[in-house]
Design goal:
Two copies of one chain form a homodimer.
Chain A lengths: L2 H11 L3 E5 L8 H4 L4 H13 L5 E4 L1 H5 L2 H18 L4 E8 L3 H14 L4 E4 L5 H4 L9 E7 L5 H4 L9 H9 L8 E5 L6 H8 L4 E4 L9 H8 L6 E5 L1 H4 L7 H21 L5
Parallel strand pairs in A: 1-2, 1-8, 2-3, 3-4, 4-5, 5-6, 6-7, 7-8
Helix pairs in contact in A: 3-5, 3-13
């Protein structure tokens, strides 16, 4: 997908919502716990209930790897299910990968060759050759961590250099490695006020914004400081949607929560684009 | 395992060698290509031939993930095989993981709960809460990337701050999160001259040193600049051992290469300890 393709979907659905699919078996409603593949069954019902309101899904690999082979099989089924339902939905492998070039090439093969993901999140610490193998698949994206939404972001990401902090250097240096059609950045919503500064460095790139909802970020601020001429935002919500209800109505309530966010997003989009 | 346990194994085997198990199907000798599980069969023969000369193995997850579920099944079999052969061998999940606390907890469960690894490599970009979940398993280790052996290391790891570069800050800050019995650091052998400076910051921690062999680092320099009072080094070699020969004698040649490294290591150990 190109950035233009993503923007078209955003206008069509009046939404820049990404739903994080992070299933924890201990949190799954009783009604899916007895299914043959509880993780997939949970995801499938969440996807059915939310896909009208979302342009992207983001399964975090940790939640699947932690259940071993059956977890990874459920991830595989989930991605194929989304892809079959609507090929225009952007599917992000939230895996925070990154290794020496030779090895990142194998990680790229895992997410783009073995599974039909559109994008993968990548940690920047190991530099250019750890990221570029993810950029060699036409139509696929690398989403580089810039400023994350967690407390630990303070430890190194603000490390001051000569004139620029580490996350600013990551943005400045890494944008040379790809284009606005294969590189995005993670910028946490808990730092929404930073988005204005970040937009000076990467005015045209899409940003993947976690941290709205459970982690406390404001959607309104993210839209105000982060939106660009192609919207340029994918705002993720995981726990606030998928665990909004723990009864057998969990999917209906998840759909309602997703629709609420979509409706708020529609207002911000209407203020800027003809939708 | 404690650092003392690792040191005891080093003295016993007169070796601080770690063998990287990074199987690529396209590189596997014809004699294993027809096996039911070629990846496991390759690893098993490498392990049988090298385990007398090594104190650690380090499968890199990318090489298994890139073959989907059958790759991950081969990884699982490999780790259990090593563990059954000799529980004193230190097994490192080279996965470069790291995410927000809630998520890193799931990654920790994947490598320590689902599989019998002793350690996992971790990227430091997301800070403290991304690393500490790996430190809560008794006897298990997190190995934090400090200075890596690839070209891209220059992009951000030397980012100068007030008085310390990024990799120095990573070493200074992160050692507060754990102890010398659950935290190690990755320091590439291609920067062996940096080891003297690094030892001033982390005199007592074990270091995992990739980059000897195929990547050009010198074992002699690593030993000279990096050894501490408990040896404090695990030097990894992957391609230089496992792909030293591509015939049906691949395991015998791998064993010879491992023994050559072990014999050189024995000299450096004898210069320092009673072995």
């Amino acid at each position: 997908m190109t950035s233009r393709d993503i923007f078209q979907q955003i206008l069509k659905k009046k939404s820049f919502l990404c739903v994080g699919l992070d299933p924890e078996i201990s949190k799954l409603p009783a009604c899916v716990a007895d299914a043959e593949d509880p993780i997939f069954e949970f995801n499938r019902r969440i996807i059915d209930a939310t896909h009208s309101y979302t342009v992207a899904y983001k399964p975090n690999f940790a939640f699947y790897e932690s259940y071993g082979p059956r977890g990874m099989a459920a991830l595989d089924r989930t991605v194929r299910y989304i892809n079959k339902l609507d090929t225009n939905i952007f599917i992000i492998a939230d895996a925070k990968r990154g290794d020496i070039g030779n090895t990142s090439k194998m990680y790229a093969r895992a997410v783009f060759g073995e599974m039909p993901f559109d994008a993968v999140t990548v940690a920047p610490y190991m530099g250019e050759d750890s990221v570029t193998p993810f950029l060699s698949y036409p139509g696929k994206w690398a989403i580089i961590l810039a400023l994350t939404s967690n407390r630990g972001a303070d430890d190194f990401q603000y490390h001051p250099g000569t004139g620029q902090r580490l996350f600013e250097k990551v943005l400045n240096v890494s944008q040379r490695w790809g284009t606005t059609d294969n590189l995005m950045y993670v910028v946490g919503a808990t730092r929404a006020e930073m988005l204005a500064d970040i937009r000076k460095i990467v005015p045209d790139h899409f940003l993947l914004v976690p941290g709205v909802g459970a982690q406390g970020g404001s959607l309104e601020e993210v839209a105000r400081y982060g939106m660009n001429s192609q919207c340029g935002l994918l705002v993720n919500s995981s726990r606030g949607i998928i665990y909004a209800d723990s009864t057998d109505r969990f999917d209906i309530v998840a759909g309602e929560k997703a629709r609420e966010m979509q409706e708020e997003m529609a207002i911000y989009l209407a203020g800027r684009f003809k939708v």
